Amino acid sequence: MGYYKNELNDEEWQIMKTHAAIGETILSSAEQEFPGDEGVIRMAFKIAGGHYEKWDGTGYPRRLSGEDIPLPARIMALADVYDALVSKRVYKASWSHEDAIHEIISKREHHFDPLVVDAFVLESDNFLVISQQYEDN
Questions:
Q1: Are the CB atoms for 45 and 68 separated by under 8 Å?
Q2: Domains in the chain, ordered, with CATH?
Q3: In principle, which of 27, 40, 85, 117 could form an S-S bond with 45, CB 3.0–4.6 Å?
Q4: What is the pLDDT of residue 6?
Q5: Distance (Å, rounded) from C-alpha 96 to C-alpha 85?
Q6: Count of beta carbons in the 10 Å neighbourhood of residue 33
Q7: Taking the C-alpha atoms of 74, 79, 82 and 87 in order, what is their torsion angle to the nearest 10 degrees?
Q8: CA–CA distance from 47 to each of 42, 51, 92, 97, 106 (Å)?
């Protein structure tokens, strides 16, 4: 969703940006509700709060940069953008797998952790298989 800021007016964009903090709030209370699953919930908390941060510090909600962004959030950021690009939406056509790869590579060191991009490129065939398997119909 963060990739399509131009689809929202400024007020809608500000509201949309609050969902990362809302997810963190929900997950922080869930840790007490589900004892024994703390590790999974902590990881989900990091992902919810950090997957819209950008490697160069221009993301939100905290404008974290580089390795200050939790690794699970850096991985999810890339996976989320890949899914948004290759999935058809009411406001856009789906991109090809190849175009999505090129777009993600072009954002290396700006939007995405360079090492996560490198791992994605090595495993990109698996992303294609998974995206086709779970394609929205």
A1: no
A2: 2-133 (1.10.3210.10)
A3: 27
A4: 60
A5: 8
A6: 8
A7: -140
A8: 9, 5, 26, 24, 23
Give the separation between CA 24 and CA 124, rounded to whole angstroms.
29
Q: Count other C-beta atoms under 10 Å from residue 31's C-beta.
A: 16
Three-class DSSP category at 112: strand
pLDDT by residue, tens only, the chain of 137 residues: 445 546 778 888 888 888 888 888 888 887 777 777 778 888 998 999 999 999 999 999 999 999 999 999 999 999 999 999 999 888 889 999 999 999 999 999 999 999 999 999 999 998 989 988 887 75
**Minimal CA–CA distance to 55: which of 13, 102, 118, 114?**
114
Question: What is the identity of the amino acid at 74?
Answer: R
Tokens 């790869």 found at:
101
Q: What are the structure tokens assigned to 15, written together?
A: 């509201």
The length of the chain is 137
pLDDT, position 2: 47
Q: Which two tokens stand for residue 10?
A: 């400024």
Structure-block tokens of residue 79: 């996976």
